[in-house]
Amino acid sequence: MGIIVVMPTEPLTAEIMNVAVKPEFQDQYLGSRLIQFVVDYFNEDPDFTALTIKTGTTSFKQLYLYQKLGFRCSEILADYFKNPEIYPNDIYENKMLLRDAILLKRALKV
């Protein structure tokens, strides 16, 4: 139905690398529950003080969800999706060329 992948990326910070819910199970709050599970889990871990997540600047639905769950825009990663070794083909989302990523961050133990 859904999956979430998280890994430590720097001291005191873990990044949500991927959140995916099968299309037939979307819009049933599964993504929200997966993310909230991760927030709750890392809130209990004294080795972490923040969570981050990246998404495209054209990912409107995802940006809304992450901000609703307490993540704040922290940084714009210009041309993040224009690396041909990782993304050999242009990506279009919401009828727009995806170029930049937004890094969102949420403090833990708040």
Walkthrough of the structure:
The protein is an alpha+beta fold. Helices cover 21% and strands 38% of the residues. The chain has two helices and seven strands. The strands form two sheets. It has a five-stranded mixed β-sheet, covered by helices on one side. A two-stranded antiparallel ribbon has the order 5-6. The model has no long low-confidence stretch (mean pLDDT 95).
Could you tell me the strand content as a percent range? 35-45%
* Overall mean confidence score, pLDDT: 95
User: What spatial form do the alpha-carbon principal axes imply?
Assistant: globular
Uncertain stretches of 5 or more adjacent residues: none
Helix content: 10-25%
Q: Would you tell me the structural class of the helices and strands? A: alpha+beta
User: Helical segment tally?
Assistant: 2
The major β-sheet equals: 5 strands, mixed
Measured on Cα atoms, how large is the radius of gyration? 14 Å
**Quick one: how many beta strands?**
7
Query: What's the helix-strand series?
Result: EEHEHEEEE
Distance between the termini: 30 Å
Q: How is the largest sheet built, in terms of strand order?
A: 1-2-3-7-4
